Structures are given as structure tokens and as C-alpha cells.
Amino acid sequence: MSGLAQELAISVRDLVVGFGRQIVLDHLSLDVRRGEILGLVGASGGGKSVLMRTIIGLVPRRSGTIEVMGQPMGSVHDRSRQGPAGKWGILFQQGALFSSLTVRQNVQFPLRENLVLPQELMDEIAIAKLEMVGLRAEDADKYPSELSGGMTKRVALARALALDPPILFLDEPTSGLDPIAAGDFDTLIKTLQKTLGLTVFMVTHDLASLTTVCDRVAALADGKIVAIGPMRELLQSEHPWVRAYFHGKRSQMLQPHMR
Ligand SMILES: Nc1ncnc2c1ncn2[C@@H]1O[C@H](COP(=O)(O)OP(=O)(O)OP(=O)(O)O)[C@@H](O)[C@H]1O
To answer: pLDDT of 26-80, one tens digit each?
Structure first.
């Protein structure tokens, strides 16, 4: 493995993904560095979720290569080449918890699926993960219907972290949260990155998240990554879509100091 490859958590090269006659990702290349929080922005329907789902092997690709932690990922039809359990944790946009399971059982779900552990140890792990995401041990016996939106996201995050993955995929993690809860969730993600050394790949439309937690931001347009870098560099991009996104009326209203 070359030095550069060792520094990369995810490396995507020349990726083509389509459905029928529609090409969604068109020879897309992207590197995610180990330990960084990378934010991905793009138009609605532009292919952000498809890119994330292709990396984790849920959507088949037509061509191109994907490496995760230096290992080539097989295509969706080749499950034997997928990484071992615990390679990544995922927080889907509709990151629904199992409504008939308690918080504790939800967090333990990946442990039960992948490991054989004594109940006592699983209980300890569940409480440790809940505390890691800012919840209390008392919350473990609650059911999803008893949780606020912010708490639900935290439980889903605790579940995503159950197997101690080095990479976390987040699909619009702050959507549906009020600005205070969203800010708290951003802070939590940043803290987890620092304390656990996590690599985070985050699809988001949230300008505050992009500005405050992302080390780099990648912009997806026309099926490709058209700009990538720290937010201050993206703001200088001449690409028409990137300019429209960050310098359009709405963005300027939210980020007046960025002009
Ligand atoms: N399983 C599928 N079958 C057919 N078309 C699909 C499938 N999944 C996604 N698409 C199409 O791929 C395109 C990209 O969708 P995707 O969900 O990745 O967009 P997105 O950038 O995440 O959008 P948003 O910001 O609105 O969530 C859309 O045109 C969508 O209809």
C-alpha cells in the first residue's frame, strides 16, 4: 500500500452508476482522508445518497473502483469481498429505530447480529455507547416513541457506533432537528471525531454543519465532484453550481459574513 493510500479512508475512482438510461454518477472520483469529517453537498436528486449507498455496497456500479481503508470493495453482487462487520457505521436519513425494541435493544442489535457476547457485556457496551452520545443510562429502557427527535438521532448514532467502526456515514444528520438540537448534534460529531479518531462522511444541506464541523466539503454536480476543499476554498470556487449554492440569496442570508 502506498503512503497516500494509507492516509485514505475511502478512495473512489472513475465511478459510474446509473439506473436504466439515467446516469447518476459519471466517472466520479473522490478521496476521504483518514480522521477527517468530509461534508458532501449537491443538488436534490443529484446523487449524494446514491454515492454513499454505492460506497457501502447497497447500489451496484457500472464501472470504477472503490477502496475502503485500503481494501478494494467488491460490487454489490460480490458480497464475499465486502468488508467485515464493523468497518463502518451508518446513520440513514430516515434512521428509524426498531419501534418494538427498547433503546438498549436497538443499540445492541448490531452486536447480536455480528458477535456472540454475554448479556452482561452487551448491556455494559450499550450503556457506554449511550453515554458516548450524550444520553443517560435511564434512557436505555425507553421505547423509540418516548424519545425526542434529537434523542432518536443520538440512539441511532449509538447503534451505528456499537461495533466501534473507524468510519461513520451520516445522511443529512441534522435534518428535522431545531437549530439548537442540530448545533448540539454537530458538536457531538466533532467530539466523536476527535476522541475516537473517526472518519466521517456526511451528506448535508446544513450550512452551519458545513461551516462548523466539516474539515473539507465536496460538491457533487453533473455526476462528478466539481470542487473539494475546506469551506473557505469552496466559497472561492468558480463552478456555476457551487457559486449558486453558496452565494445564492438563501445562503447569503444565512452566512452574511461569508461574502
Ligand atoms: N434505486 C433506484 N432506482 C432508480 N433510480 C434511483 C434509485 N435510487 C436513486 N435513484 C435516482 O438517482 C438520482 C439521485 O438520487 P439521490 O437519492 O442520490 O439524490 P440526492 O442527491 O441524495 O438527493 P436529496 O438531496 O434530495 O436527498 C435520482 O434521480 C433518483 O431518482
So the answer is: 999 999 999 999 999 999 899 999 999 999 999 999 999 999 999 998 765 544 4
Helices (H), 115-148: 119-132
Q: Please name the residue whose Cα sits nearest to atom 27 of ligand 1.
A: 44
- Name residue 26's beta-bridge partners: 16
Contact 168, 17 (CB under 8 A): no
Cβ < 6 A, ligand 1 pocket: 19, 24, 42, 44-50
**Per-residue pLDDT tens over the stretch 97-120:** 999 999 999 999 999 888 888 899
Mutate to test the pocket of ligand 1, among 15, 16, 17, 19 (most ligand atoms within 8 A of CB): 19
Does ipTM surpass 0.95 in this model?
yes
Residue ranges covered by each domain of the chain: 3-87+167-258, 98-164
Top-level CATH class of 3-87+167-258? alpha beta
- The answer to whether 155 and 106 have CB atoms below 8 angstroms apart is yes
